[in-house]
Amino acid sequence: MSTTSSARNSTWRNWGGNVSARPAREVAPASVEELAAEVRRAAEDGLKVKAVGTGHSFTSIAATDGVLIRPQLLTGIRGVDREAMTVTVEAGTPLKRLNAALAREGLSLTNMGDIMEQTVSGATSTGTHGTGRESGSIAAQIRGLELVTADGSVLTCSEEENPEVFAAARIGLGALGVVTAITFAVEPLFLLTAREEPMPFDRVTAEFDQLWAENEHFEFYWFPHTGNTNTKRNNRSAGPEQPVGRLSGWFEDEFLSNGVFQVAQWVGRAAPASVPAIARISSRALSARTYTDIPYEVFTSPRRVRFLEMEYAVPRAALVDALRELKAMVDRSRLRVSFPVEVRTAPADDITLSTASGRDTAYIAVHMFRGTPYHAYFTAAERIFTAHEGRPHWGKLHTRDAAYLSGVYPRFAEFTALRDRLDPERLFQNDYLRRILGA
User: Fold this and answer.
1) Residue 4 reports pLDDT greater than 80
2) CA torsion angle 318 319 322 325 (round to 10)
3) pLDDT per residue as tens digits for the range 333-352
4) Confidence class of residue 7 from pLDDT cuts 50, 70 and 90?
5) Is the backbone of residue 7 left (phi > 0), alpha (psi -120 to 50) or beta?
6) Left, alpha or beta for 162 (phi > 0: left; psi -120 to 50: alpha)?
C-alpha cells in the first residue's frame, strides 16, 4: 500500500535550502498502479502533481502546493538484460545504489556526474552530467522509459516505441509525466586511471583543446582570486587497481575537501575580506595524485559542504573566451568568491532539451557557500554566459524564461507541442515550468 500523508503544514525543502513548498498532500506510491491512481485522484481534486527526488535541484522544478509524489518505495533493479547490455531500474533508485548494484553484477554506466545522491529519475529529468569527450550525460545513456501521463495511463517509449516521446522525455523536466522506470545502456565493469594535478589557469585555457582531445574525461576547477586550477583526467586503464589509500583518501576527500573546506567557507562568510587569501591557500592544498579504480569510485565524490549553484552550457568552442571573461569580471569586481568554478564538457546529443542538444558543449558552474550573498556574482556570470548563447542547467539557478530558451534550443517548439499533447490541462505545471516553457 502507498503511504499517504495529508498534513498540509509539512514543508518540503530542497538540499540547498533555498526552495521550500507546502504541498496539499504527500504520497509515496509502492507501485506504478498506485502512482497512476494518485495522478488520477489529483486531477479529480483539481490539484497539480510533482514528483520529487532527493531535492538536489537549486531551482523550484519540483515545488508544488498540490500533490507531492515521493518515490522512495519505487526503488530497485527490475532486471538486467546481458544480451542487450541494459539494466531497467525503478525511478526512485538513488544513483549510488544503482552504481553499487551494477558493480556487483560486473557492470557499469559509461559516464556519470560527480554526485550520486540523486534518484535516477531526478538526475536524468534535469540533465545531470559528468564530463566526457565522447560520452554524454546520464540521460544520453537511456534506452527506454516508462512514465505515467496526465490521464493516468502508463506509456513506454524507446527509439522504436513512441520515438517522439523518447526524444524529449529522457530530459523531460517533469513536464510530460511522472517517470516510473528507466532502462540504461550498461557495459562490462572497467577501470579508470585518474590523474589529478594543479595547473596554472593560463596554461589550462591555452592548452584546453589539446587537454580535451587527449583525455576521455577532462575537467578542472579554477579558484577565483587566483591564477590556479586543479585538473582531473580520467582515462580507461588495463589496471591493476590502485585505489586511493584509506588514510590519504580520507585526508584529501574528507578532511581537506569537506572538513577544512567547510571551515574555510565559514571564515569567508564571516570575514569576506579574507576570501582571496583563503582561495590562494585552498588552491595549493590539494597535491597531485594518480589512482586507478572502478568508475563510480573515480567519477563521484562526497559533497558535504552545502552551496548554491548556477551552471551554463556554452558551445565548446566558446569556453575559453567565456572563462577568461568570467575571470576578468571577478578580478575587477569587489566580489569575494570562496568556491571554485567547475569546467566540464559533453559531446552533442539528440535529446530535445538537453543542454548539449545538437552541439558540442562545455559547462561552466559557479557556486557560492550557502548563506553567502550570491545574486551579484550569479547575475554578472549569467550575463557572460548568455552572451555566448548559454543554456542553463535545468536544476541550477538561472533567470531565463521561455522567450530566451526558445532562441537557444532549435527544438524547443517540438517539446512544447509534445507537452500540449501529453498534458493539455497542465496537471504537471508549476511556477518554474510556466516560466521556462511558457503557459
Assistant:
1) no
2) -120
3) 999 998 999 999 999 999 99
4) very low
5) beta
6) left
The residue assigned the cell 559531446 is 347
- Rounded to whole angstroms, how far apart are CA atoms 77 and 55? 22
Cα distances (angstroms) measured from residue 346 to each of 77, 99, 180, 219, 239: 27, 21, 26, 11, 26
Which three-class secondary structure state does DSSP give residue 20? strand
CA–CA dist 404, 304 (Å, integer): 34
CA distances from 200 to 170, 205, 224, 256 (A): 38, 9, 12, 20
Rounded CA gap, 314 and 395, in Å?
16
How many helices and strands, by DSSP H and E, does the chain display? 15, 21
What is the number of other CB atoms lying within 10 angstroms of the CB of residue 279?
22
pLDDT digits over 143-156, tens only?
Answer: 999 999 999 999 99
- 371 or 202, which is more confident: 202
For residues 29 and 1, give the distance between their C-alpha atoms in angstroms, rounded to a whole number: 7
Give the largest CA-CA distance in the chain.
60
The residue type at 207: E
C-alpha gyration radius of the chain: 21
Please give the model's pTM, rounded to 2 decimal places.
0.94
281 — pLDDT class (breaks 50, 70, 90): confident
Query: Given strand 67-69, what is the order of strands in its sheet?
Result: 3-5, 25-28, 67-69, 49-51
What is the Cα–Cα distance from 236 to 189, expressed in whole angstroms?
11
Q: How far apart are CA 344 and CA 363, in angstroms?
A: 5
Q: Is 204 helix (H, G, I), strand (E, B) or coil?
A: helix
At 63, list the grid cell: 515545488
Q: Judge residue 253's burial from the number of C-beta atoms within 10 Å of its C-beta, 0-12 exposed, 13-18 middle, 19 or more buried.
A: middle
User: 150 and 48 in contact (C-beta within 8 Å)?
Assistant: no
Q: How far is CA 51 from CA 28, 89, 433, in A?
A: 10, 17, 13
